[in-house]
Amino acid sequence: MSGQASMRAMVLEAVNQPLQQRQQAVPQPQGRQVLLRVRACGVCRTDLHIFEGDLREPKLPLVLGHEVVGEVVALGPQAQRFRVGQRVGVPWLGSTCGVCRYCRRGQENLCEQARFTGYTLDGGYAEYTLAHEDYCFALPEGYGDLEAAPLLCAGLIGYRAYRLAGEGVERLGLYGFGASAHLLAQVAVFQGKEVYAFTRPGDTAAQQLALRLGAVWAGGSDQLPPKTLDAALIFAPVGALVPQALRATTRGGVVVCAGIHMSEIPAFPYSLLWEERVVRSVANLTRQDGEAFLALAQAAGVRPEVMPFALEEANQALMALKEGRVHGAAVLRVSAG
User: Fold this and answer.
1) Which one, of 20, 32, 28, 22, lies nearest residue 4 by Cα?
2) Which of 256, 290, 301 is nearest to 165 (CA)?
3) Under a CB-based contact definition with an 8 Å cutoff, are residues 337 and 41 in contact?
4) Which residues contact 259 (CB under 8 A, 6 or more apart)?
5) Residue 113 in 3-state DSSP?
6) What is the number of other CB atoms lying within 10 angstroms of the CB of residue 28?
7) What is this structure's pTM?
8) What are the backbone dihedrals phi and psi of residue 231, each rounded to the nearest 5 degrees, phi first?
9) Burial (CB count within 10 angstroms: exposed 0-12, middle 13-18, buried 19+), residue 167
10) What average pLDDT values come out for the chain (337 residues) when binned by 10 residues?
C-alpha cells in the first residue's frame, strides 16, 4: 500500500470559489482500481470550465485534474494490468458502461453512463488518486512526468479533433494556440501539412511559439490566412470563431470545435457553410484514440512546452490559464519521480 494515511489535495468545494488545500485520507483501491502516487497533473481548460461552473454536474467536493501522471503504489484485489512501481497516465474518460448503444458500436466517448476524471471522479490535484486499470495508459518512454501530462488531454482531444477533420488535409488552421494546438502542430508538421496558427490578437509570444514549432504562418484570430484552409480546429472556447474559421476554409472544408464548452455561436450567412463545408464537434475521447496518439507523439518526437506550478499553486495556474499567460501547457508538479 502507499504507507501513508493522509494526503494533500486541492479541493473544489463550490464553483467560482478558490480551491482549498485539505488533508484527506489516502483512498484504497477496490476491484480493478489502481492507487497512484501522483507525480504531475496537467491544468486543462476543462478544469477552468468546471471551476467556473460552465460544466454544471461536477461532484462536490471535487479534486480536479484529468491529465494525471502517476506511479502505481497499490492494486485492487482484481487488478492485474499494471505492476506496482509502473508509471501510468490517467485521462478524462474514467469509465464507461460497455453495454449502451454507443459503447456497442465503438463510440464509448458518447457512453450514456460515462464517468470522468476530475469531474464526476476525483482527479489528480492531489498526492494520490484512484483509477480503473482499463482506463489508464502506459506512457511512452522519453517523456518526463511534466512533459507527459499534457499528452493525456490536450494531446488526446486534439488528436481526436485532428482525426475527425478527415483525410486529404494539406493546409490546417489551429485557432487558439495553447496546450492542444502546440502539440497538434508538431504532429501535423511531422506529417507534412502546412500549419496556420491563430492566436488572441496581439499575442506575439504564442505566434512566435507556433512559428518555432513549424507553422508556416501565425497571426491573430481576427485575420484571414494567406491561403484558404482545408480544415480548421478550434480550441479556444469562443463561438465567434466558428464563422471566422468558415471564412478561412476552402470548398469542402471542415471546421472542428474541439472544446467541451464554447460561448454562443453567432448567426452567420448560409454562404459561409455552402459548398459542402462542415461544422462538427468533438466529445471526450476513446481509449483507441489514446493508444494511437501516444504512439504517434513518440514517433513524431512531439515535445510539450510546459509551465510548471507546485500543487499548492493550483489556483494561480488556473488564473494564468484564464488570463492567457500560459504558452504551451500548465502542469502541477506534485511529487518527484
Assistant:
1) 28
2) 256
3) no
4) 45, 46, 234, 235, 236, 237
5) coil
6) 13
7) 0.94
8) -155, 155
9) exposed
10) 82 97 97 98 97 95 98 97 97 97 97 97 98 97 96 96 95 97 97 97 95 98 97 97 98 96 96 97 95 96 97 98 94 87
